[in-house]
Amino acid sequence: MRNLLKGKGYKATPARIEILDILNKSKKPLNAELVYQKIKNKNINKTTVYRTLSSLSESEILKIVDLHKDSVFFELQNKHHHHIICTDCDLVEDIENIEVEKVLSKIKISSSKFKNIKEHSLEFFGICKECS
Amino acid sequence: MRNLLKGKGYKATPARIEILDILNKSKKPLNAELVYQKIKNKNINKTTVYRTLSSLSESEILKIVDLHKDSVFFELQNKHHHHIICTDCDLVEDIENIEVEKVLSKIKISSSKFKNIKEHSLEFFGICKECS
DNA sequence: ATACTAGTTGCAAATCATTTGCATTTATGA
DNA sequence: TCATAAATGCAAATGATTTGCAACTAGTAT
């Protein structure tokens, strides 16, 4: 984590390292509140969590995940994958599908108004078997 | 619009009709504030706009579009398509790509924990030629 | 090791999109 | 035309996120 931060020009502070560790261990994307709850070092302020998540997602370290919730969720960029979200119970399942990535990468060169496309977001929504 | 509403069991009120008209004419997804600004009938309250957008997206009339902004954007479900968003100037371009839809529809049957997947969201982010 | 400096953080207060309670109004079916 | 559930307006509340500013600290140069 230290190297990841320094490589992007960030100072490797305890807050950033712990927040990245938390996101790295998490199976699901997390929002600021959830990250804050998992932090053990109680000297870290919630504002710092917001600022860290926001600033690290401006570089390519973190990625915003749209779960259609009222708050913003994040995951490590290198854990990037797509999800299915249950609109009832909020269950999140990962999708691994090579074909998707192939097609998505082709689209990256098909726009007339955009030179380069940096990232994409793709999520699915439905009702899980448990809820239905 | 009246029929669309009634078909889903909604009362066809002036507010709903005007809001759907606005979304139908719009080339871009709109948030509550933008919809409200376009409303000519000044008897319609902004709260009603919020409630209308929220309730119509619970049925399959409207669709939430994730633009990575601080507010929630909507578009008519039947106008459903994907977008490229410029993270600098907020330019939104539509994507028409049949291959994408083919692949996406295949994924819909590949989940172990989900019986049926109702919808998906797919957006791309980058810097448009103008901004770069 | 020590000092410097820009980048970070904590705290409290401010913002701002969105939601809610409740009284009033209205669309629709009988 | 009437009854009634659904929809709306208004004002106040909520809650996530942001901001100003003073105090702190990681990384670098000395």
Structure description:
The structure is a homodimer of 132-residue chains. Chain A is an alpha+beta fold. Chain A has two domains: 1-78, Arc Repressor Mutant, subunit A; 81-132, 2-Layer Sandwich (Dna Ligase, domain 1). The first copy, chain A, has five helices and six strands. The first copy, chain A, has helices at residues 2-7, 14-25, 32-38, 46-58, 98-107, and strands spanning 30-31, 62-65, 73-76, 82-86, 92-95, 114-128. Chain A has a three-stranded antiparallel β-sheet. The model of chain A has no long low-confidence stretch (mean pLDDT 89). β6 of chain A pairs antiparallel with β6 of chain B, so a sheet runs across the interface. Chain B binds a DNA duplex (30 and 30 nucleotides) through residues 10-13, 15-16, 31-33, 43-48, 50-52, 54-55, 70-72.
Topology record:
2 copies of one chain form a homodimer.
Chain A: H1 2-7, H2 14-25, E1 30-31, H3 32-38, H4 46-58, E2 62-65, E3 73-76, E4 82-86, E5 92-95, H5 98-107, E6 114-128
Helix pairs in contact in A: 3-4
Chain B binds a DNA duplex (30 and 30 nucleotides) through helix 4.
Q: What features would you highlight for this structure?
A:
alpha+beta, 26% strand, Dna Ligase, domain 1, homodimer, 6 strands, 3-stranded antiparallel sheet, 132 residues, DNA-binding, 2 domains, Arc Repressor Mutant, subunit A, 3-stranded mixed sheet
Task: Give me a quick take on this structure.
2 copies of one chain form a homodimer. Chain A is α+β, with helices and mostly antiparallel strands and 132 residues long.
